[in-house]
């Protein structure tokens, strides 16, 4: 492997390992990867529209619709028409959804512990700083990269389902 691409290769490998570990920790709770992120948003502020959740999570609205539907079927959420805009749906936690919070937070603590094992506080802080820098760099480069996407590629800037589409 070329040194020129080592960082990108490691990002992919770390992301895969993180996703696998998170999946293993969440499945016993009856959750699929990504569902916990939507729940976390609602734990921070309950009663949000699906559109607001999609925007806050930078997800396609159809992805949020599927996730909400699945969590609703599990009895963790409810949906109801908005009082201000009857076309919009407001998503709310059920008592079962609220009760899952401690277990999900424990799973995420375990994930964090595993990922940072053996790293002193200073190295943990530096890792977080570098990750934020990488995210900032990629986010800044995204408009130019997305403009070069061939039509039909997920995240294509011309895709009206894309949450970043104007």
Automatic annotation (TrEMBL):
Cite the Pfam families for this sequence: MarR
Q: Which UniProt keywords apply?
A: DNA-binding, Transcription, Transcription regulation
Name the Gene3D superfamilies for this protein.
Winged helix-like DNA-binding domain superfamily/Winged helix DNA-binding domain (1.10.10.10)
Q: Which SUPFAM superfamilies match?
A: Winged helix' DNA-binding domain (SSF46785)
Q: Which GO terms describe its molecular function?
A: DNA binding; DNA-binding transcription factor activity
Extract the InterPro entries matched here.
HTH_MarR-typ, Tscrpt_reg_MarR-type_CS, WH-like_DNA-bd_sf, WH_DNA-bd_sf
Occurrences of domain HTH marR-type (ranges): 4-136
This protein is called what?
MarR family transcriptional regulator
Recorded source organism is: Bailinhaonella thermotolerans
